[in-house]
């Protein structure tokens, strides 16, 4: 082994974690290919163009900001947290940011996100986040990896247009009788089947091979679009990010809108709404990151002996710093991506996996048209397969006890059906606290009625769990009115 490889191995603890440099590299490439869509989807969402149309004046600025946020978050995960997770501006969070920007303006929205990132950073520095997340009930924690598995698989099924919207049943199977609507599902299924077969045969890099295979067969099927390579712009317009025009630059808009931000606090309703929005961004980032880290580590047997996520504080610091940096340059909240599970499932165990992802994000500044050749149907095949793997932890959940079954069910089904890891966790915690609280009151009454025969009931709810319960109730039921 060369000196460089030896140094790399020592720094990341690759051999100590039972991995190899080649495995980590493959894992990094796999993770990146499953989440590369965010490069164009995020600027498309934040500008309202919902696609690769770069004609919007802020599109290129947000595109560069997206890569900066993803690179900073992921390289911190690599070099500081040293765990195999990637970060980028979160889906759902960017749609929320766009909705706010429509009424508040882009700069004010980024300032709200920036403040939520600073709060997130403070909570991490003072160790409050660990205390909050330790208070998440055990049954909810057990349901998280199952919920994330269902969520990932559902995203894959929707992305590949296998499951489509339906006006009568909300969702339905795609029409497989017509080639136009069947080609993407068939390409995706071919990738899933190949990944499953190669995994059964213990072929290394099965998921990566499946993605590439689906991309190739997608060419004659008309799913893989190569037209974007012709006359493509292979470098971003950095001048669009740093121009002093707030209608073009998200960076400039963020740092020139503080007077508008201050106006939110001139009325009680405006101040309350601003606080609720900041709280929402903070909670979503906190619980999305926790859910992704815990669920993926649980499935990959990476949790520490006490059941905690390895180097959790460092991961939270990376997340918080990335959100602050991302908002500063003009993109929405940066969070840990559930697509990281794809890399972990092929053997990624150290920060080298994340380092590979971060370098590929940097390379994407100049090679985005090449990366965008990979169709969504191909990357969706990896998400579906990884989702299937994660669902296997459902065996750890006790469905015999109704007081535990209901919170577990709401957590694991809440994630895909609300399209939010945070909302799924929130539904689980709220139901857990209400059930346990009512049972405690009933048992206290029974005990008071017959002290001789009954044992005094024990209080089962952690005090911090009550605080989390209240915060989730506020998040769900109190609207932000601007």
Major beta sheet, strand line-up: 1-4
Q: Determine the N-to-C terminus distance.
A: 61 Å
β-sheet strand percentage: under 5%
Largest pleated sheet: 2 strands, antiparallel
Helical fraction equals 55-70%
| Uncertain spans | none
* Rg from alpha-carbon coordinates: 23 Å
Strand count = 4
Regarding quaternary structure, what we see is single chain
Quick structural overview:
This protein is mostly helical and 482 residues long. Helices cover 68% and strands 3% of the residues.
What does this molecule look like?
This protein is mainly alpha-helical. It has helices at 3-12, 21-35, 38-47, 59-81, 93-104, 106-125, 128-134, 138-159, 179-200, 206-221, 238-242, 250-255, 258-263, 268-299, 312-329, 340-345, 351-371, 376-391, 402-418, 421-449, 463-477, and strands spanning 87-89, 163-166, 170-173, 334-336. It has a two-stranded antiparallel sheet with strand order 1-4. Helix 2 packs across helix 17 (351-371) and helix 5 (93-104) packs across helix 6. It is globular and about 85 Å long.
Layout: helices, strands, pairs:
Elements: H1 3-12, H2 21-35, H3 38-47, H4 59-81, E1 87-89, H5 93-104, H6 106-125, H7 128-134, H8 138-159, E2 163-166, E3 170-173, H9 179-200, H10 206-221, H11 238-242, H12 250-255, H13 258-263, H14 268-299, H15 312-329, E4 334-336, H16 340-345, H17 351-371, H18 376-391, H19 402-418, H20 421-449, H21 463-477
Helix pairs in contact: 2-17, 3-4, 3-5, 4-15, 4-17, 5-6, 6-14, 6-15, 8-14, 8-18, 8-19, 8-20, 9-10, 9-18, 10-18, 14-20, 19-20, 20-21
